[in-house]
Amino acid sequence: MAAPDAPRGRPRDSRAHQAILTATAELLAEAGYAATSIGAVAARAGVGKDTVYRRWSGKAELVYEAVFTQTEAVPVPDTGTLRGDLTVLLDALVREFTAPGAAAALPGLLADFAARPELRARIRSQFLAPAKSRLVELFERAVQRGEADPDLPVDLVLDTLAGAVFFHTGLLGEPAGPQLAAQLAAIVGRGIEAR
Amino acid sequence: MAAPDAPRGRPRDSRAHQAILTATAELLAEAGYAATSIGAVAARAGVGKDTVYRRWSGKAELVYEAVFTQTEAVPVPDTGTLRGDLTVLLDALVREFTAPGAAAALPGLLADFAARPELRARIRSQFLAPAKSRLVELFERAVQRGEADPDLPVDLVLDTLAGAVFFHTGLLGEPAGPQLAAQLAAIVGRGIEAR
């Protein structure tokens, strides 16, 4: 907590940033994607619309960060096994996709991504980049332990993990039981072929 | 082809059915999801709107059948190996998701599914049922060959396969190269752990 006479700038900026993200997630859960306008978010966060636009170029970018960057808030898992690490990673993904804000945001967000090719082109390079770098770190350790091949198609593994969680929980709305992350980690980690 | 004096009914019905599905896929690709109304589909197929409503309870159901039942049109793969069968299945999925009609339909279809809980509740039981029965058949042969565990969570494997293809091609719009199905079959079939 900054003291009242602390220099302005980063601390206040950081508080505004977090207030905007929190307001966005709350609005999504309460009122849905369509009603979550930049103006409504700014009003709820107690900032001006220009403060929002200084940080995010549009609603889709703001909503994406508000609901899909939870995974990056926790350290990269290091349980000692690839399967263990994948389970932790998938568990965070499941929590992200089943949070009230994310569930409310997904359909509208997908429609916006699909309708705006320039946004869609940035999904891989911008939105998915942090998740990929975490997966790469986790795979590098698995390769060192001899648990994984060094020539894994990381992008495709990421799409498989995210796609499985999205399809199961986000699209079908299946309840995310406590075993879901471990079951998906087993399917993608060990594969479905018997050995 | 039915002779002119053949009894009416199924043959003509079947032709109307196919004409409606074809008109739907074409309209989606040309004009997008929003413009693909039941009225526009009926006009293009040369039938009355009531003929469409006799077969499909709404636009989402019709669009889903028009773009996502290609996989069921080919025999269940039986290549002799689980990996080979998965590759054929995934290849059909990739073709479905990258067809012009499907690519145009997906965002609007997802938004409709999300906005109508009664429709969403039927995805698993109705829309995904044919794909699951094909996967079950393929797994049963793999279990008999000792290639797969008998207690596989089939629903979750199906969600992983469909989710991976949807996320990679449908959502991100990645080009579907000739190796995509085989790479996904390797990830899900063999797993990413080295052995």
How many strands in all of chain A? Answer: 0
Can you give the helix content of chain A as a percent range? 55-70%
Low-pLDDT stretches of chain A are 1-9
CATH architecture of the largest domain in chain A: Orthogonal Bundle
End-to-end distance of chain A: 55 Å
CATH fold title of the largest domain in chain A: Tetracycline Repressor, domain 2
Approximate strand percentage of chain A: under 5%
Number of helices of chain A: 10
Mean of residue pLDDT values of chain A: 87
The global form of chain A is elongated
Could you tell me which chain pair has the largest interface and how many residues each side has? A-B, 47 and 47 residues
**For the record, what is the CATH homologous superfamily label of the largest domain in chain A?**
Tetracycline Repressor, domain 2
Write a structural description.
- With 195 residues, chain A is an all-alpha fold.
- The first copy, chain A, folds into two domains: 48 residues, Homeodomain-like (Arc Repressor Mutant, subunit A, Orthogonal Bundle), CATH 1.10.10.60; 122 residues, Tetracycline Repressor, domain 2 (Orthogonal Bundle), CATH 1.10.357.10.
- Chain A is built from ten helices and no strands.
- In chain A, α1 packs across α6, α2 crosses α3 and α4 runs antiparallel to α6.
- Chain A is elongated.
- The N terminus of chain A is likely disordered.
- At the A-B interface, α6, α7, α9 and α10 of A face α6, α7, α9 and α10 of B.
